[in-house]
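Narrative of activities, Objective 1.

The group set out to show that a structural description can be obtained from nothing but a protein's sequence at a throughput compatible with the screening campaign. Below is one input-output pair from the validation batch, recorded exactly as produced.
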Amino acid sequence: MQLRAVTKVYESGVAALGPIDLSIGKGEFVSLLGPSGCGKSTALRLIAGLASPSSGTVEIAASSMTHPGHRIGFVFQEPTLMPWTSVRDNVGLPLKLAHVPTAEARPRIDAALAQVGLADFADAFPRELSGGMKMRASLARALVTRPDILLMDEPFAALDEITRFRLNNDLLALWRSLDMTVLFVTHSVFESVYLSQRVLVMTARPGRLSAEIRIETDARDDAFRASADYAAYCRRVSDALAPAYTGVHAL
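Output recorded for this entry:
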């Protein structure tokens, strides 16, 4: 996927994003890191087709547009589950909206629930789930469409640290097994370094890319989290992020 000279200016006149140039290859895991209001979520919405750029172009691989709206999965910061229906029905909602026959939809829903560890909670209601389980259900709802690209907008921000670590590991396992491209928005330096092959740091609004840090490791596990390499990467990313919080834009 590519963003070329993309900007977003809202009707109010607020310049939210850009110009920004961004290229992400198939199968990559990339994080967008930056201060609140810098346009991270706006960039995701432009890629997902939920908004249009004010200028520039957004290009998605042809294979991702074979079935528009079905090849890009989006996980929002809040699970946004319908409280009056079961986890299974929540996960199956995109297939229902796409008029996928029940005989085809049911095994896909069951597979998505199994992928996120919720197979035993298919008939539960959202009120019966913990915060982490609700986010797993939201992830399953995105996976049920079998996306090539998974967009994630601070999905674990509201969770406790232990749950967040566990979901980070589960997300990495899914990324490896499903060969998806993942673009992950986060405020956390530590999370971005742990998850990503590349961390893209953004300036304050209007958001532009100010730095790219490649995380050169194949061992993303508890040992990596405790390593000197991990600490060094976190320092590099923190140093790159610092100007965004002092009003200095790196150009």
